Amino acid sequence: MITEKKSYQENLKDLRENLGTMLPKEALEVFDNDAKHLHNHHKSILKLQVGDKAPDFSLSNATGKTIRLSDLLKDKRVILTFYRGTWCPYCNLQLSHYQKSLNEIHDLGAELVAISPQTPDESLNVKEKNELNFEVLSDNGNIVARKYTTVFINNDKPVNTMAELGFDFDAHYPDDSRELPIPAVFIIEKDATVLFAKSLGGDYRNRVEVSEIIDTIKTK
């Protein structure tokens, strides 16, 4: 029997229940308060809107190969998703959620690419951890992210709380800037025109549903 894929929001409910049993209550409150703070302080997220031309870029993938946006666009539309890092459970959930619909995305003539400021080694980790079959690129210094979405400096409190839980935030990145992109998704046409641009805001717990991406590709 074929079962319906869960939506991101349905998966998020399961994740929240798991985090509630895995993390100390005080730690989860720190992370949740951070998400609420980012939501309240970042209202205008996107740097590109529908109809704009997407800036070209070249970034290293998980094995060190250079991937150029314009090369990908020669054959297919490209879906770009900007995420925070391997350590972020919501990013892992989103990427895994998208992976489950990757065959449908490919059948619709599109390619999926995920971008974060992590090192290539960490990009490889996120691919292996979530069994991803799409490109995961390293945007050192958030050079590309700044042209597409908002970049901010991660607060000390969540970073310190991560350290107390045994996670070294800085080890995931090639610098100590602690800058992160606010998650956002773009669909780029072959002529580099932005077909779709969306972020659910600074609250990184919320992400764009893959069904919305697929519906957009199907109807436009």
From TrEMBL:
<feature type="domain" description="Thioredoxin">
    <location>
        <begin position="48"/>
        <end position="220"/>
    </location>
</feature>
<comment type="similarity">
    <text>Belongs to the peroxiredoxin family. BCP/PrxQ subfamily.</text>
</comment>
<dbReference type="GO" id="GO:0034599">
    <property type="term" value="P:cellular response to oxidative stress"/>
</dbReference>
<dbReference type="InterPro" id="IPR013766">
    <property type="entry name" value="Thioredoxin_domain"/>
</dbReference>
<dbReference type="GO" id="GO:0005737">
    <property type="term" value="C:cytoplasm"/>
</dbReference>
<dbReference type="InterPro" id="IPR050924">
    <property type="entry name" value="Peroxiredoxin_BCP/PrxQ"/>
</dbReference>
<dbReference type="GO" id="GO:0008379">
    <property type="term" value="F:thioredoxin peroxidase activity"/>
</dbReference>
<keyword id="KW-1015">Disulfide bond</keyword>
<keyword id="KW-0575">Peroxidase</keyword>
<keyword id="KW-0676">Redox-active center</keyword>
<dbReference type="InterPro" id="IPR000866">
    <property type="entry name" value="AhpC/TSA"/>
</dbReference>
<keyword id="KW-0049">Antioxidant</keyword>
<dbReference type="GO" id="GO:0045454">
    <property type="term" value="P:cell redox homeostasis"/>
</dbReference>
<dbReference type="Pfam" id="PF00578">
    <property type="entry name" value="AhpC-TSA"/>
</dbReference>
<protein>
    <recommendedName>
        <fullName>thioredoxin-dependent peroxiredoxin</fullName>
        <ecNumber>1.11.1.24</ecNumber>
    </recommendedName>
</protein>
<keyword id="KW-0560">Oxidoreductase</keyword>
<dbReference type="InterPro" id="IPR036249">
    <property type="entry name" value="Thioredoxin-like_sf"/>
</dbReference>
<comment type="function">
    <text>Thiol-specific peroxidase that catalyzes the reduction of hydrogen peroxide and organic hydroperoxides to water and alcohols, respectively. Plays a role in cell protection against oxidative stress by detoxifying peroxides and as sensor of hydrogen peroxide-mediated signaling events.</text>
</comment>
